[in-house]
What we know:
175 residues, Rossmann fold, 6-stranded parallel sheet, globular
Amino acid sequence: xxxxxxxxxxxxxxxxxxxxxxxxxxxxxxxxxxxxxxxxxxxxxxxxxxxxxxxxxxxxxxxxxxxxxxxxxxxxxxxxxxxxxxxxxxxxxxxxxxxxxxxxxxxxxxxxxxxxxxxxxxxxxxxxxxxxxxxxxxxxxxxxxxxxxxxxxxxxxxxxxxxxxxxxxxxxxxx
Length: 175
């Protein structure tokens, strides 16, 4: 990507966090903000998350390092586990931004096949740069693979994106 381009990243925060946890390493969100900017010319990185007040320090940290946070109200499953499914919010935001021509190219950070239609749309409009899959190739949705989009795997960038083995700010409710 050329420097100075007006490119954006749409990041499924839950998908990213879950995949990094399954890989057994701590993702450095500051490095994740820098690396795609250098590789893909990302000007804005929209990180979609479920809103849980206990993580306010984490949210402040993420904003301080350059993410634009987009919150989804959470619901709770039968076991009391919070669910903040942001898939539809990401699709609507990306399609609105594409129609309003607010970016040149987009990067989607997710492994979720629910985004296959969005990816196909962005390819058709010549607006997709790449998919950055947080999952290993075997765990990335076949639906995304079938779109023919360029898929890069965050796990291949562990040496660049792994943080020290320390908790995120306020991860356990402490500061």
